[in-house]
Amino acid sequence: MTRRSVPVRIVGAAATIAAAFLLGSCGVPIDAQPAALSRSGVPFNLLDPSTPTSTSTSTPSPIEVPVTIFLMGADGHVVPRQRDVPVSAPDLFTVMGALVLGPTDAEAASGLLSAIPAQTTVLGATISGGVATVNLGTTFGQLVGPPQIQAVAQVVFTASAVPGVTGVMFQLDGQPVEVPVASGAQVPVANTSQFTSLAPTTNSTPA
Questions:
Q1: Contact 170, 191 (CB under 8 A)
Q2: Is the dihedral of CA 86, 151, 154, 185 positive or negative?
């Protein structure tokens, strides 16, 4: 007895009928043709999907303003140089901090130096009644002789470049101290007129 093959068309039709029967038995309605769903039949939030947004944060560059510090030139006179500090902090403390950092590499290569020891720290700097009080670490007090006078001159000229300052008092670790001026005399409050021999030359301008 030979086995007869079933035509492919009959098998396909049978599969389609079976699938339709199963769907009908499961309660899933069968439409004769595609139909649009009503808005009430669309799952929540599919009609107005939110578009993912990405945000990026960046730190704005601080706005800076120029201030003037004074270094020592090879001729023994103080030399004004410009430093840029954040506009939010152009106060005496920030200016003194810029001073104790000393010359840049380019400035040092051109012969400028600082008599202030590199390890000097600024503990405080305030202005009251036209007098600036600069509180420095004890390293500053280890200077003697001409380097001490030059370092004092740098601080006095730098502080006096801040508007409103007419004199400078010094403190070491919070203790008031007298400092030497160009004549060698010790004074409790120093000003630029006491350092005329170290004053900037007429062609010195901030750079």
A1: no
A2: positive
Is the pLDDT at 86 greater than 60? The verdict is yes
Tokens at 206, concatenated: 């901030």
Distance CA 21, CA 5 (A): 25
Please give the structure tokens belonging to residue 144: 């003697």
Residue keyed to tokens 């510090």: 69
Higher-pLDDT residue of 31 and 67 is 67
| Residue 80 token pair | 């004004």
Nearest to 73 by CA among 141, 154, 181, 144: 154
d(CA 132, CA 6): 109
Please classify residue 85 by burial: count the beta carbons closer than 10 Å to its beta carbon, then call 0-12 exposed, 13-18 middle and 19+ buried.
middle
Q: pTM of the entire structure?
A: 0.70
**3-state SS of 39-80?**
HHHCCCCCCCCCCCCCCCCCCCCCCEEEEEEEEECCCCCEEE
What H or E segment, with its residue span, contains residue 16?
A: helix 8-25
**Residue 97: strand, helix, or coil:** helix
Residue whose structure tokens are 């339709």: 20
Is 60 exceeded by the pLDDT of residue 80?
Answer: yes
3-state secondary structure of 30: coil
Whether residue 165 contacts residue 131, with contact meaning beta carbons closer than 8 Å, is answered with yes
What is the 8-class DSSP label of residue 17? H
Is residue 71 within 8 A of residue 113, CB to CB? The reply is: yes
